[in-house]
Amino acid sequence: MALRIVFTMPVTKAMSQTLVRAMSSQAVASKNVGFIGLGNMGGHMASNLIKQGHKLHVFDISKQACDNLKAKGATVYDKTTDLAKNSDYVITMLPNNDIVWKAYNDMTADGVNKNTVFIDSSTIDPNLVRELQKFISEKGARFIDAPVSGGVPGAEQATLTFMVGGTKDEYNTVKPILEGMGKRITYCGSYGMGQAAKLCNNMMLAISMIGTSEAMNLAIRQGLDPNVFAEIINSSTGRCWSSELYNPVPGVTPTAPSNRDYAGGFSTDLITKDLGLAAGVATATNTPIPLGALSHQIYRTLKAHGLGNKDFSVVYEFMKNEANN
Amino acid sequence: MALRIVFTMPVTKAMSQTLVRAMSSQAVASKNVGFIGLGNMGGHMASNLIKQGHKLHVFDISKQACDNLKAKGATVYDKTTDLAKNSDYVITMLPNNDIVWKAYNDMTADGVNKNTVFIDSSTIDPNLVRELQKFISEKGARFIDAPVSGGVPGAEQATLTFMVGGTKDEYNTVKPILEGMGKRITYCGSYGMGQAAKLCNNMMLAISMIGTSEAMNLAIRQGLDPNVFAEIINSSTGRCWSSELYNPVPGVTPTAPSNRDYAGGFSTDLITKDLGLAAGVATATNTPIPLGALSHQIYRTLKAHGLGNKDFSVVYEFMKNEANN
Amino acid sequence: MALRIVFTMPVTKAMSQTLVRAMSSQAVASKNVGFIGLGNMGGHMASNLIKQGHKLHVFDISKQACDNLKAKGATVYDKTTDLAKNSDYVITMLPNNDIVWKAYNDMTADGVNKNTVFIDSSTIDPNLVRELQKFISEKGARFIDAPVSGGVPGAEQATLTFMVGGTKDEYNTVKPILEGMGKRITYCGSYGMGQAAKLCNNMMLAISMIGTSEAMNLAIRQGLDPNVFAEIINSSTGRCWSSELYNPVPGVTPTAPSNRDYAGGFSTDLITKDLGLAAGVATATNTPIPLGALSHQIYRTLKAHGLGNKDFSVVYEFMKNEANN
Amino acid sequence: MALRIVFTMPVTKAMSQTLVRAMSSQAVASKNVGFIGLGNMGGHMASNLIKQGHKLHVFDISKQACDNLKAKGATVYDKTTDLAKNSDYVITMLPNNDIVWKAYNDMTADGVNKNTVFIDSSTIDPNLVRELQKFISEKGARFIDAPVSGGVPGAEQATLTFMVGGTKDEYNTVKPILEGMGKRITYCGSYGMGQAAKLCNNMMLAISMIGTSEAMNLAIRQGLDPNVFAEIINSSTGRCWSSELYNPVPGVTPTAPSNRDYAGGFSTDLITKDLGLAAGVATATNTPIPLGALSHQIYRTLKAHGLGNKDFSVVYEFMKNEANN
Lengths: 325, 325, 325, 325
Fold this sequence. Notes:
Chains A, B, C, D: Its EC number is 1.1.1.31. Chains A, B, C, D: It is found in: Mitochondrion. Chains A, B, C, D: Pfam families: NAD_binding_11, NAD_binding_2. Chains A, B, C, D: Belongs to the HIBADH-related family. 3-hydroxyisobutyrate dehydrogenase subfamily. The structure is a homotetramer of 325-residue chains. The first copy, chain A, is of the alpha/beta class. Chain A has two domains: 31-191, NAD(P)-binding Rossmann-like Domain (Rossmann fold, 3-Layer(aba) Sandwich), CATH 3.40.50; 196-320, N-(1-d-carboxylethyl)-l-norvaline Dehydrogenase, domain 2, CATH 1.10.1040. Helices cover 50% and strands 12% of the residues of chain A. The first copy, chain A, contains 14 helices and nine strands. Chain A has helices at residues 13-27, 42-51, 63-71, 80-85, 97-107, 126-139, 151-156, 168-178, 193-221, 226-234, 241-245, 268-284, 290-304, 315-320; strands at 32-36, 55-59, 75-76, 89-92, 117-120, 142-145, 148-149, 160-165, 182-189. In chain A, 58% of the residues are buried. Chains A and B meet through strand 9, helix 9, helix 10, helix 11 and helix 12 of A and strand 9, helix 10, helix 11, helix 12 and helix 13 of B.
C-alpha cells in the first residue's frame, strides 16, 4: 500500500502531517461524495476529499474547474440530479442565497436518494438554511449547514474550521467527511446555527479589525512606534486576533496581507457580504448591532472606493490616508 | 547579598521573578517617595511602596485616606511643597486634567528640589503631559508620565501595568520604583506616549467589549448557546480579550463582573472618561475613529441611563434589553 | 342632488373642503374598488372611497373591521378571488412583505380579471414590487405600487401623500381613485419607485429626528432655552421638518406628540420597519448609509427598551435621560 | 431727518427694511470700532462697518489685509493695546481658541478702556467665552460672544446672522453695530450661548447634509430621478435646509456648490472644526450625540482623503463613489 512509503521517506513536518491525515482514509470508509461549486475554495476542498480516498462526483458551471478535478480522478456531471443520486454526501460551496436555492431545486427536481446527506458549506442566511432543511427533509433526505472559515489557504491545506448546524447524530455522521477538509469541526446546534455562528464571528472580526486600525492609527499619529504599541496592546486588554495575528499596519505581523499591499487574504467584498447577512438576521431578530452596522457601512464605503478586492485589513490604509493633513 | 541566591538555585524564570519580587525590598535601595492622591488605586499603590521598604510622604484631601497610610508608617503633609522637597520621587494619582495641573502648580509654587523625579500615573491628556514636562523641566527637575492599567485589584496586588513616557534613562531610573507597584513596566517612548498608549488601548477595549456584546447577543437571539458560541469565537478570528477573559454574558467567564450583576471591575464612568480623552487627541491629530467615537456615545448613553457605576461590560445588558420583543 | 345642500348650509371651512372633495365624485365615475386590509389606515381609506361614491368590495381577517365597512355600505367577502374579479381596482394595505405576497397569491389563485388594476399601498421591499408586477402582468392584469405617507390622521382626513411607481399611463389611470384618499399623488417612476421614494424619505426623516434630538439636547444642556434654540435653528441652516413641525422637545411645537408623552403619531416600531427595508435595499445596491444604518440601530435599541409603541420622537427622551448626571 | 420718509411713504415692510438699512449710516451714530482679524470674513465685515460711517481701527498679521482696509479709510495699528483703547467696540474674528485667547491677553496687557465692549465673532469653545468674559470683566470692561453664520457671501453682502450671548442690555448695546454687518441679530442668552447655538445648529447641519447625501444616493441607485426625488422629499417629512436649498447632488439646486465641483461654500475643514467644538461640549456635558459624533468622523475621513477645501456637500460625491460597483 502506497501509504507505507511515508515512513521510509525523509519527510518534513508539514509533509508528515499531510500523510498522517491521508492515512486516516483507512479509518474513513471511502464514500461517494458529490461536490457542487469548484471555485477558489471548493476546488481545493474537493481535491482534498480525493486525497482521502473518496470518489468524487462534481459539477461546476466552469468547464476548466471541472477538468481540473477530472484530472485528479473525479467524475464530472452535466446534471446535478444524477450527481446527487450517486452520492452518499453532497457538498455545496456556492456564492450566495439565490444560487444555493436554485442549486437545491435543480438537484432534487426529480426526487432524492433518501440516503444522501446534503451539506451546504456556502455562507448564506440562516433562515434559508431552515427552509432548505425543510425542503430536503420533506423529500426524504437530510440537510445540514456547515459553513467554513479559514479562507483559500485553509481550503488548500485542509485546515478549515467547519461550523455545523444539525442534529448531533447528523454532526457525527458528517464529521469524518469534513475532517478530510478541515481541522476543527465544531458542533453549533440545530439547523442554521452553523451559519449563525459564522456570521456572528465574522461581524466581531470586522469590528475588531476596524477598531485595531483606528487604535493603531491614533497611536501612530500621536508618535508611538507601531511595533511598540502593538506589543503593548497585545499584552493588554485591547488584544484581539486582528491586532495579534493579522495586524493591518505594514511591518507589524510579518505574514499579514498588510505587508503585501493588502493582496490576498479575506477580501473586503466577502466581509461586506457576511456583514450584509449579519445585518439581515439582526433585523429579523430585532437585535441592536450599532458597531456591526457601522462596520458594514465602512466596508461598503471601501468597496465604493474600489477596494473590494483587497484584503479587509486595507481599512487601515483607507482611514490613515493623509492627503490633507 | 540575598539576591545572589537567586542565580545559584536551579530556578525557572518564573520562580526567579517571584523571588526577585519577594526580595526586592532589600534589593531596591529605600527611597523617599512622595505620593499625592490616595484614592481607590493610590492608597494601595502607596501601601505597596511601604512594603518595599520606601519612606512614604503622602498627601490627600481626605483625612481618612491620610490616616490609613499614616498607620502604615507614612508621613502625612498639609502642604505639597514640603512633600515634594523631601522626596526623591513624587507620584501623582489624581482624577483629571484640571486637578493634576493644579497639583503640580501648588506643589512647585516655591521651586523644586532638582533631584526629584515627578511621575504622573493619572490618566490625562497627552498634551497636558507635554506641558507639565516643560513646566517641571524649566524649574530644573524631571517629569514623566506613567499611567496604569489593571484596576483596583492590580493596585492591591501590585500587578499593575505601567506605560511610561520619557527618555530611556528616565525609564530606567523609575523602573525599580514602579516595580514595587506593578508587574509590567513598559517603555512607550517620549513624554506623553505612556498616556497615548493607554488611551489607544482603552479605546480598543471599549470597541471590542461592545462588539463582543453585539455578537454574543446576536448569536443568542438566533438560538446559539452562549457557551458554545463563546468557545467558537475564542478559537477563531473574532477572539478578543473581552470575549475570552471578561465575557459580558453571565455564565461564560466565571470571574467576570457579568456574573455579579456587573458590580466592581472597570466602571462605565471611567471608560467614558478615557474615551473622551481619546476623542480629544483624535480631534487634535485629525484621526478618524468612527467606531471609537460611536463607542464613546454608547457609553455616554449608558451613563445617561444610570449605569455609570456598573462595570463597562453592562453594555451587553443594556443592548439585550427585551422589553418590547 | 344632495350635494347642492352644501352651499345652503352654514359650513365650516373643514366641512366645505370635505364637501368639495365629495363633489369631485361627480367627476370620477363610480368604480368597483376592492380593498384588502382594513386596519388603522385601511379602514379610513376605504371609508373615504365610499364617500366618493365608489362601490367597495372588502376583505380583512378581522370580522369587526369588515362589519364597520359593511355598515357604511361595503360588500364583505370571505374569498379574495371573488373580490378581485368584481373589482376595477384592488387596493392592498397590509403589514409586511410576506403578508402582501401571500395576499396576491391567494387573490389570483384561479386567475385574474384582466381589467383589474392592482394597487399596493403597503410599505414593502421595492424588489417585491417588481416581482409582484411581473407575477400579475404574466397573469394578464396590471400592478403598481403606491405607498403612502401621512399616517392615521392623513388616512382619516383623506390628506395622504401617495408615491406611485408604474407607467405614466397607469399613474393617470389610478390618480382619480387615489385622490379620493389623499391630496398629493406623486409620480415617482417605474415599478418600485414609489416604495423607493418612501423608504428614502423615511430614512431621511429618522436621521433628522435623531439629529434634532441630539442638537436640542446639547443646546439645552449648555443652558439654551429650547424655544429660543428652536427658533434659531428653524431660521437657519439646521432647519428640518422635525425641528419645525414635530419638535421632539415638549413645549416647542404644540401639536407634536412630544407634548402628550409621545403617544400616537408615527411609532418607533413603524420607523424601525421602514429603516429595515431601507437597509435591505442599501445592501442590495451597495449604497453606504452610515447615518441611516446607525439610526436604524438606535431605533432598534429603543424598541428593546420598550418604546416601540411610542411616537418616534421619543428618541429625544431616551437620549436626554439623566439618571446619572 | 431722512428716516422719517420711510414711514410716510406707502412702502412694504421689505422695502422699509431696505431703506432703513440703506440709510442706517446716518441713523447709527458713528463709533470707533476696533477690528482684529481681517481674513476672508473679517475683511468684508470691517469694510461694511466703514460703509455704515464708523471709524475703523484695524489689526491683522497680514500687511496686505491691513492695506486693503487702510485704502478704505481704516486706521492700521501695530499694537492691539492702542487699538483697543481707542475703540468703543472691539470685534475679534479669529481662527481658533488659542489665537483668540492670545489676542485678548495681548490686547489687554496694560489694562483696558472701561468703556470698550469686546465682541468675539470667532467660533470657539463656549467655555472659553466664559473664561474671557470673566477675564475682561475683572479688568473692568465688557465682553460678549457673537459668532456668525452665513459664510463669505453673507460677510460680503452684510447678511450674516449673529448669535449673541450676554446680558439683554449688552445685546441691545451691540445690536446697532452688528446690524451694519448682518441681517439677523439673535439673542441667545447669557455668555457662551451664542457659541452654543452656533455649534448645535452646525452639528444639525452636518447631520442633515450627510443624511441628505445618503438618501439622495440611495434613491438614485434604486432608479429614482434625483429631481423627482428631491421634489418628493422637499414636500414631505424628509425635508431639510440641505435638501431644499443646498442639495449635494449636481443639477438639483442650481445655486449650490455641487454644481461647481463643490468649490466655495462652507468648507469641510470648517464644518469639521465646528463638529470638534460640538464634540467637546458634548463630552463636557455628558450629552450623547451618536449621529453628531459619527458625522464628525465622516468629515474627518473626507479631510484625510484630501477634500478639506471642498464645500461640505462633497460628502455626497465621497459616498456615491462607484469605483467598484
